[in-house]
Amino acid sequence: MATKLLLTDLASSVSHVPSNYIRPIFDRPNLSDVVQISDASIPLIDLQGLHGPRHSHIIEQIAQACQHHGFFQVKNHGMPEQVINNMLRIAREFYRLPESERLKNYSDDPSKTTRLSTSFNVKTEKVANWRDFLRLHCFPLEDYVHQWPTNPPSFREEVSEYSTETRGLVLRLLELISESLGMQRDYIDKALGKHGQHMALNYYPPCPQPELTYGLPGHTDPNLITVLLQDDVPGLQVLSNGKWIAVNPIPNTFIVNIGDQMQVLSNDRYKSVLHRAVVNCNQERISIPTSPRQLTLSPKLVHQSSKSSGESHINMYSGESHMTTSTNEEEERHCLYAMQLASASVLPRVDGMNVAEYIGKDERFCELFKDSSRYYNPMFMKKILETYRGFEGLKSLVDVGGGSTPGGKGAVLNMIVSQYPIIKGINFDLASVIEKAPSYPGVHNVAGDMFVSIPKGDAIFVKLNDDHCLKLLQKCYEALPNNGKVIVVDLLIPEAPETSLAIQSTFQLDLFVMNMNPRGKERTEQELLSLAKAAGFSSIRVVCCAYNFSLVEFYKKMRSTTAVYAMQLASASVLPMVLKAAIELGVMEIIAQAGPGALLSPSEIASHLPTSNNPDAPLMLDRILRLLASYSILSCSLVTDHQDGQVHRLYGLAPVSKYFIPNQDGASLASIFNMIQDKVMIDAWYHLKDAVLEGGLPFNRLYGMNPLEYVGKDARLGGVSKDATRDYNSIFMKKILDTYRGFEGLNSMVDVGGGDGSVLNMIISLYPNIKAIHFDLPTIIEKAPSYPGIQKVAGDMFVSIPKGEAIFMKETPLTSSPVPIPVSSACCISMTYIMMHLYQISNFVGFFILGKLNGI
């Protein structure tokens, strides 16, 4: 199967948009509604005469543009036209390089400072954007330029020149913005310190169905400002007064947009507005955004407004509503950080009124609240609908207060019903709200009082945001069938403070709630459970998160997932048997040999196996690998075949996979797994019940002998056990030697039951000053290899043990000796293990598994 990591190599070969690029119906660009106006769709500011008499006029223009538009363009900016043309040319040349050359720069690791990719995080994003990008960190140049592509040959030279010129422009713009805020012109530059800079070379190829996808969906930038260079192909659109405005390119200009941090820094005076990139079916497009690193909040500006007017313009929604709707981890961190900063200043207390009453009396603040809330619910609901599957199977859903929530009037319920059209939606709110609510297909508007009664439905969707939530939950309980549930979106706080961005912003928003309503608060999961039980519900479950909000289900009856869990237990033996087959087939080694980050199809894996007599091998492998991926033993990615348009599964290694692949010493846990899952061992479990009822050991009851005797008669099992011990010693002892320092300073040590002596040899190799004694039974010692610095001594540990400053014991025998073991005054370094103990017969060495260190 042919697959492509980059869109550039896929786009030219498809006649329709592959499924993994198609946006949900509610999140597609309505291109017919875009406003096409003049070239001056956003303010165009001429920087000519910046240092002359026009200086104050330019400052005022920038202030107006930042305050009312959030975007502006600049001309006569001082950057040579040749530098701009060279940058656009070298970007095109890069994307026209052969696929193999471009892929040298590919990475799916979002943390890399130089990487070529098609998504922010290909491992987590479910819908890809119609864009490839090359991300470059570019200041200080000497720290990063050596990481940049070497082709085209002039790439590093020309991008370095552009980066240097752009940095100068960014610093000039930050000075102008500082002045426009009434601050010292170098305030932002000083606050940034020795700040970095990064850019992206965005490539948007022609798209056969541009109405189904985005180059980039609606988002804001999380930084201070972005300086954008684009070619002559339109694609950038800015949201203004609820309409998407096309920004037509003007030659030799740069577009400047305000980022989330600048909005916070300016105390909400300057606006970070939503913008997006759309694509077309005829022309490729290049855009190159450049940004400085992020900045912390300016205390001066936060306090300035509160001192002068008694209130702060920053509110809890401003950061949230403007954040990007992307689902990748990097953007989510930006969102959480902006939410944290947005709650850094809280609303003042207005005596005699709660915040709802105050909003009703203050027209200015009411409009501010509406404006900041406009995109609040769509942003979070998109995130929820991407991850939450609890709406599946519902026939009816009641949205309580659905017309009065931010961005409400049934809009949230409409998003749900659009994705799940089988659901009968009921938008339930006060009569005064419902009479103004629009009509949506599949949504029925119902007026009433939630504290009197609630319409019946399979599930009820509600936000617990007031101090009457117990009464509300009781009414929800009455309206639900026995198998119904309440779906709650709320902030959950941990019992103890944590330092993550999500928790920091949650604690700040909790105090924001307290400031508005002394009885209102955010809750811990335990407090939410207590509230649920007080309302009559049996249990709750935290299902998923949207940024720092949690989606919690309240159940009237104990949820049916217990039955699913029981079914999982009933088939529990399948997983180890499937993993055993995958190990024996060498599946993980095949994937590893394909290179770091490799993704292989079942057919590609089967091609490395002798499956010529089984045409169904790829299908069988796919089912095996799918199960392993569901347990995160492997990773799974969906890709579209550019030839047939079909979606296929590709499998890669997950973090746990490496433990089942031979390491640099040739050791892995696969041999230990094979020992535990060997048929000889598995069959003994069938006699556990009889052993409980009648006594004895399951192994002995089945085979009529103990494990010691059995291994002496079964050379195959002896070999399996020897391999397991060898690999376990190598893996486990390396970890011990990396962390344990108790061997330091010892002059002598005795390894009791040392088996083949390999463990003691690992210790002595690291601590050669230790006089080591390898002590075991004569039958073992006579066949054990010799190692430098180790003396072999035969004997019986239950009779006497050689003297030493320390005694090392790797395992606990199955039977204890009635005779005390004399250890003189030596200390004892011991491990306790939970598996069976076997002693060597012939070439078999002692076997032990998965223990814990005492005192380490």
TrEMBL record:
<dbReference type="InterPro" id="IPR036390">
    <property type="entry name" value="WH_DNA-bd_sf"/>
</dbReference>
<keyword id="KW-0223">Dioxygenase</keyword>
<dbReference type="InterPro" id="IPR027443">
    <property type="entry name" value="IPNS-like_sf"/>
</dbReference>
<keyword id="KW-0408">Iron</keyword>
<dbReference type="GO" id="GO:0002229">
    <property type="term" value="P:defense response to oomycetes"/>
</dbReference>
<dbReference type="GO" id="GO:0046872">
    <property type="term" value="F:metal ion binding"/>
</dbReference>
<keyword id="KW-0479">Metal-binding</keyword>
<keyword id="KW-0808">Transferase</keyword>
<keyword id="KW-0489">Methyltransferase</keyword>
<dbReference type="GO" id="GO:0032259">
    <property type="term" value="P:methylation"/>
</dbReference>
<protein>
    <recommendedName>
        <fullName>Fe2OG dioxygenase domain-containing protein</fullName>
    </recommendedName>
</protein>
<dbReference type="GO" id="GO:0046983">
    <property type="term" value="F:protein dimerization activity"/>
</dbReference>
<dbReference type="Pfam" id="PF03171">
    <property type="entry name" value="2OG-FeII_Oxy"/>
</dbReference>
<dbReference type="Pfam" id="PF08100">
    <property type="entry name" value="Dimerisation"/>
</dbReference>
<dbReference type="InterPro" id="IPR016461">
    <property type="entry name" value="COMT-like"/>
</dbReference>
<dbReference type="InterPro" id="IPR005123">
    <property type="entry name" value="Oxoglu/Fe-dep_dioxygenase_dom"/>
</dbReference>
<dbReference type="InterPro" id="IPR001077">
    <property type="entry name" value="COMT_C"/>
</dbReference>
<keyword id="KW-0949">S-adenosyl-L-methionine</keyword>
<dbReference type="InterPro" id="IPR036388">
    <property type="entry name" value="WH-like_DNA-bd_sf"/>
</dbReference>
<dbReference type="GO" id="GO:0008171">
    <property type="term" value="F:O-methyltransferase activity"/>
</dbReference>
<comment type="similarity">
    <text>Belongs to the iron/ascorbate-dependent oxidoreductase family.</text>
</comment>
<dbReference type="GO" id="GO:0051213">
    <property type="term" value="F:dioxygenase activity"/>
</dbReference>
<dbReference type="InterPro" id="IPR044861">
    <property type="entry name" value="IPNS-like_FE2OG_OXY"/>
</dbReference>
<dbReference type="InterPro" id="IPR026992">
    <property type="entry name" value="DIOX_N"/>
</dbReference>
<dbReference type="Pfam" id="PF00891">
    <property type="entry name" value="Methyltransf_2"/>
</dbReference>
<dbReference type="InterPro" id="IPR012967">
    <property type="entry name" value="COMT_dimerisation"/>
</dbReference>
<keyword id="KW-0560">Oxidoreductase</keyword>
<feature type="region of interest" description="Disordered">
    <location>
        <begin position="297"/>
        <end position="317"/>
    </location>
</feature>
<feature type="domain" description="Fe2OG dioxygenase">
    <location>
        <begin position="194"/>
        <end position="295"/>
    </location>
</feature>
<feature type="compositionally biased region" description="Polar residues">
    <location>
        <begin position="297"/>
        <end position="312"/>
    </location>
</feature>
<dbReference type="InterPro" id="IPR029063">
    <property type="entry name" value="SAM-dependent_MTases_sf"/>
</dbReference>
<dbReference type="Pfam" id="PF14226">
    <property type="entry name" value="DIOX_N"/>
</dbReference>
